[in-house]
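Onboarding guide, step 5: your first structure request.
Type a short instruction followed by the sequence, for example:

Predict the 3D structure of this protein.
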Amino acid sequence: MTSIPEIITPRLKLVALTRELADLQVEDRAGFFHALGVVEDPAWPPAMMDMEIMARVRDALQENPEHTGWYSWVYVSPILNRLMGVGGFKGAPDTDGIVEIEYSMLISFREQGLATEGVTALLDWAYSHEAVKLVTANSHSDRKASHRVLEKAGFVEGQRFFDDNEGAEMISWSHRHKKMAA
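The system replies with structure tokens like these:
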């Protein structure tokens, strides 16, 4: 199995999905939990991480296994030995050095600062790559808790727009690394 990148924070262990883990998540649910060494959870996956998205991540990592880390990271509670949520990017940096971040927590782990902790860790990881100049996010305009996560992580609110694919009004957000903002 491919080496699995991990990020450790005070309350989380973030584990990047490799092509093998992404395949297990889609094809062998019990094998996925076993490979991560966590308790199986019937609530998995969190909202905003449906089978279509999981299959898309798997396919992207099958095509570009060197992009491990530029897609999904699962948030693991080292104390509870459970998956708590997921975060990551929509792919490797584009030619302008931009990546888009996204995240979602299981309901029982919301409103505890864990999403912010995970997003902040992912920002640090992304900015450790010289190619990354800007991290963006898009959120539904009515998701106040998600807005708070982005604000606490240092994102700046941008324009509102209607996304036909989402069928909803969205807000764009941006985050510049401290070195870039100076």
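Each response can be followed by summary notes, for example: The helical segments are 19-27, 29-36, 51-63, 114-127, 144-152, 178-181.
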